[in-house]
Design a protein that fits this description.
single chain; 322 residues; Rossmann fold; Alpha-Beta Plaits; 2 domains; four-stranded antiparallel beta sheet; 14 strands
Length: 322
């Protein structure tokens, strides 16, 4: 393992597919031992970024170092240290859990002397020991993801790249998967995970907001919330359709999102905006059942930042990167 350097360093990563710029001038440094979330909506460029970081596709421009090793110059040395789990991991449904592990051990040239002990440890670690003889096709979604992770870890990489690993997985399996990730991280593994889930990003030590192929902010999620421009007001109002229309036309609101039966709106000054908005809603026949200032969530931050960029303004958060 390299010392005195970041586990992942990307400089100016850019990838074009014809006329489409999927990722533009992306630069990140992920320290050793970090859990870094690349957060963004579908189509933001997350998968393209991870595929460039692991060497699956070459960047149009830019460079990548993993553990201080240049990916383009020495891809074999990088692959020894890197584990990459794509969105659609190629498990073989007609092979058992154990046979899938053995297959990936062969791919990574893991010697037979160590693979038995290593696969046994991985099965115990992921809770799959009792299912080692079950066919891959007969596993639940959560179990397939844990097996995919075990296969990714068979050569004991020190850096993990995980592309939306819990997409479509039930909440219980998601929590179990993250328990495994935390244990790996405590053991010294550096993790970069892409996700659309705000709660998952909130669990990470660093979050990079990716939108339309551009990395627009990189920061600790707590600091990101603290530095968000404006204040968040939570409204409970009925009927919701009418309330949504009034909120959407209100110039005081910087951004708004619906969370369950509540509206989260970002305003410059909550003390001024609450009575004005309440009066306007009431005038349109909307019953305001509650209005209060709340701490911003990561979702509030993300919606606010994107709203400002769509409006063509400066980034809504200090420290945002162009």
């Amino acid at each position: 393992m390299a010392t005195g350097s970041a586990a992942i360093v990307a400089q100016g990563l850019t990838r074009h597919f014809g006329a489409l710029a999927a990722v533009t001038d992306l630069s990140i440094e992920v320290p050793h031992g970090d859990i870094f979330a690349l957060l963004g909506p579908d189509g933001a460029g997350k998968t393209t970024t991870l595929r460039m970081l692991c060497g699956a596709i070459a960047p149009t421009a830019g460079s990548v170092e993993i553990e201080g090793i240049d990916l383009l110059r020495e891809p074999e040395r990088v692959q020894e240290r890197l584990g990459y789990m794509p969105q659609r991991f190629s498990l073989y449904g007609d092979l058992t859990v154990q046979e899938n592990l053995d297959f990936y051990a062969d791919l990574f040239a893991v010697s037979r002397e160590v693979r038995e002990q290593r696969s046994r440890r991985l099965l115990e670690f992921s809770g799959l020991t009792a299912f080692r003889d079950r066919l891959g096709a007969q596993l639940s979604g959560g179990m397939k993801q844990k097996l995919a992770l075990a296969c990714t870890l068979i050569h004991e990489p020190s850096v993990l790249l995980l592309d939306e690993p819990t997409a479509g997985v039930d909440p219980v399996s998601r929590r179990e998967f993250w328990r495994i990730l935390y244990e790996l991280n405590r053991g010294g593994v550096t993790i970069l995970v892409s996700t659309t889930y705000m709660d998952e990003a909130d669990r990470c030590s660093t979050v990079g907001l990716l939108y339309a192929g551009e990395l627009i902010s990189v920061e600790d999620p707590g600091e990101m919330k603290r530095r968000m421009r404006g204040e968040v007001v939570e409204f409970v109002a009925e009927p919701r359709a009418d309330a949504r229309g009034v909120i959407g036309r209100s110039p005081e609101i910087l951004s708004a999102t619906v969370i369950g039966d509540r509206f989260h709106v970002v305003v410059e000054d909550a003390a001024v905006a609450i009575p004005v908005l309440t009066q306007r809603l009431n005038a349109q026949g909307v019953d305001v059942r509650g209005a209060s200032t709340i701490p911003p969530s990561l979702e509030d931050v993300f919606v606010s930042v994107i709203a400002h960029r769509r409006a063509g303004n400066a980034p809504a958060e200090e420290g945002a990167r162009e």
